[in-house]
Sequence to fold (390 residues):
Amino acid sequence: MSRSKSNEDKRSSWPAVARLTRSCRSTGSKDSGPGQYGKQRKKQSHSALTQDLSQMSVSGQGGPTASEGKQLGQRQDGPSLAKSGGGLASVARRMKMGRCKNIVVVAGAGISTASGIPDFRTPGTGLYANLEAYNIPYPEAIFNVDFFSNDPQPFFSLAKVLYPGSHRPNYIHFFIRMLHHKGLLLRIYTQNIDGLEKLCGIPDDKLVEAHGSFATASCHLCYTPYPSEEAKRAIMSGDVPTCTFCAATVKPDVVFFGEDLPQKYFLHTKDFPKADLLVIMGTSLQIEPFASLVNTVRATVPRLLLNRHAVGPFQRIPLRRGDHVELGDLENTVRKFAEMLGWNDNIVELMKSQEQQQCIPTVSGRSGTGGEESDSETDSKCSASSCLSN
Ligand code: CNA
Fold:
């Protein structure tokens, strides 16, 4: 369904509650409270007492940084502070016991920094720290549709960096694909617009690109679809693609602040209550409504944050029962996690086989002694389909 059509549909027939637009978080993180799942949460908190993984934990590679220390300092004294890797180990144990069969992954720009794509908020390297290049008055302006209407060049400059084609999926993307390969991935919700999840072979039905992507393009005013390859060609060569219908500027269907999120995003109303493990990776949880998704799993469901800093509800002291935080470089953390699960060789093998097919160049795994299993039929189909779509 085209962007314009889906937006019209949303405007005409969706109930107000289903109209969600992207916005930047202005207040601190908050739990959603009882809300939609409140009753369930209350009922289940009792049985949570008996769960072996109900201990909260915070661990990290080399300890927290100064600012993390500030945030986490009080936790250091907490009785349930696990030794490094404790949170990961207990989640890995739970997965090995077969207790996580509907895993939801929530991802952000931090999963793609290992592919060479800067995130927004990392000091020094993040795009927000390098805004001179974009000539914008404040960081969010780059995704502001009114600003774009007036001057599309700042976004087009950023688009040149983010357009799929020049970056390769890394170990973290393939870890997520391995979750799918093992039949454990219910869905990945990503804020990323780089297309690397798709490129590494995660099938469409497992992927929600909550902030859109460059795969399609349309007029930013009348939503008339525009050929995405032509839009890319124009933007990459410094031209401004214009709508064949109203002559306004065409933009890739990346969701700007104030724009509706894709319809697929609403799968979350089914997925999150069904999840039995939530893994949150490489996001600052600053963008709503995406950030609040993490508060919509059932109260007894373990949540694992893999990031450089504690973010969102994971900054709170004490942590919620069942919450785990593993701080440090994401690629290292995910590699450690994969080793605990006994998946590292499989992932390295998967990455190698993609390279050998010369289908998808990858940011190679560092080590590996060869695969233990061959790809499943499902996975082979995924590779083939991602080849076709390239
Ligand atoms: P963000 O606000 O920049 O946060 C990224 C988070 O990841 C931060 O907490 C970082 O500390 C953490 N992080 C970054 N690199 C690493 C690493 N190597 N190891 C561990 N942690 C790391 O980005 P969000 O995704 O939270 O913000 C949402 C925005 C960013 C979305 O709307 C995206 O469209 C947008 N964005 C996307 C991309 C992309 O598609 N690759 C790149 C830049 C921005």
Observations:
- The pocket of carba-nicotinamide-adenine-dinucleotide is lined by residues 108-110, 112-114, 117, 119-122, 126-127, 162, 191-194, 211, 282-284, 286-287, 307-309, 311, 329-330 (CB under 6 Å).
- The first helix runs from residue 3 to 13.
- The mean pLDDT is 78.
